[in-house]
Each structure stands twice: as structure tokens, then as C-alpha cells.
């Protein structure tokens, strides 16, 4: 017997962008003062991109690049809060609602904790989700690898989704 696909599901998302001169740094939908921003087709918000991929993965709806390809000029410079809201709409249209989000930002700089509350508030607004269902943490790479050398920022996220019509019996 195949398991019922209408039970809650989890998904994992990962994103990374390199630093670039002349761009603003946006993480979790919040502009953060920093000497460099992240390079990307949209605003390069690794936090929101990782969360979007986690939601899409949990709902078996592909990935962010499938829905908002960098080859499509419409998404050039896009605000990732809009993209995340559209991902939430896609999940809802497929019969799913986001239950909780857990995200870890991996960066040597800037410090994330001073901005975590504002990021959680933006996530709550974008996903119409209680802030208590949103976990946001940060860590460094302890000087190792591209993140450790200060070349960019990465984020990894998990999302739990549940059927809009309740659990299967």
C-alpha cells in the first residue's frame, strides 16, 4: 500500500550567493548595512531563496529556478519577498499550507542576530505565518571554504507543510 501523500511533508532548501560590489545586502527580506551585497539575478536574498526551495520541495513543485528562472528578464532585480509570497500561493494552490520554517544563515559577516527579529517579522508577513513558527539562526564557517573566506553567504532551510483540508485519515 502506497503512503497517502496528504500527510504533512518536509522539504529542504539551500542557496548561496557570492558578494558583489555596488549591491545592497538583503537577507530575510531585510536590508542590512554592509559594504557589499550579494550577486544574483533578483535581490539575491539567500534566506528567502532557501525557504522558497524548501517549500517547493516539500510540495513536490520543483525549485525556485523552475518558477523564476534567471533567464527570464521579469525576475531581474526582483524583491524575493514577492517571490516567496508567490511560492506560498503555489503551495496553497496545490492544497498545502506552510506549518513552520527553520533556517540557518551561514556567514562570517555581517552579524545576523541583530536583524533576526526583523527577518522573522518579514517571513511572518510573506507567509502569513505566526512568528512562533519561524526559527532563524546563524553560524559561521569558522574561516573555512568560500563562506569562511568571506566570499559569500549561504543559507539552508527546512519547511513543513500540511494539507489545507486537514490530515488524512
UniProtKB/TrEMBL annotation:
4-CDP-2-C-methyl-D-erythritol 2-phosphate binds at residues 15-17, 41-42, 63-65, 139-142, 146, 149. It is an enzyme of class 4 (lyase). The record marks 41, 140 as: Transition state stabilizer. Its cofactor is a divalent metal cation. Signal peptide: none annotated. A divalent metal cation binds at residues 15, 17, 49. InterPro entries: MECDP_synthase, MECDP_synthase_CS, MECDP_synthase_sf. Keywords: Isoprene biosynthesis, Lyase, Metal-binding. CDD domains: MECDP_synthase. The keyword Metal-binding applies. It catalyses: 4-CDP-2-C-methyl-D-erythritol 2-phosphate = 2-C-methyl-D-erythritol 2,4-cyclic diphosphate + CMP. GO terms for biological process: isopentenyl diphosphate biosynthetic process, methylerythritol 4-phosphate pathway; terpenoid biosynthetic process. Pathway: Isoprenoid biosynthesis; isopentenyl diphosphate biosynthesis via DXP pathway; isopentenyl diphosphate from 1-deoxy-D-xylulose 5-phosphate: step 4/6. Pfam families: YgbB. Its EC number is 4.6.1.12. Residues 9-161 form the 2-C-methyl-D-erythritol 2,4-cyclodiphosphate synthase domain. GO terms for molecular function: 2-C-methyl-D-erythritol 2,4-cyclodiphosphate synthase activity; metal ion binding. Binds 1 divalent metal cation per subunit. SUPFAM superfamilies: IpsF-like. Homotrimer. Belongs to the IspF family. Involved in the biosynthesis of isopentenyl diphosphate (IPP) and dimethylallyl diphosphate (DMAPP), two major building blocks of isoprenoid compounds. Catalyzes the conversion of 4-diphosphocytidyl-2-C-methyl-D-erythritol 2-phosphate (CDP-ME2P) to 2-C-methyl-D-erythritol 2,4-cyclodiphosphate (ME-CPP) with a corresponding release of cytidine 5-monophosphate (CMP). This is 2-C-methyl-D-erythritol 2,4-cyclodiphosphate synthase. The gene is ispF.
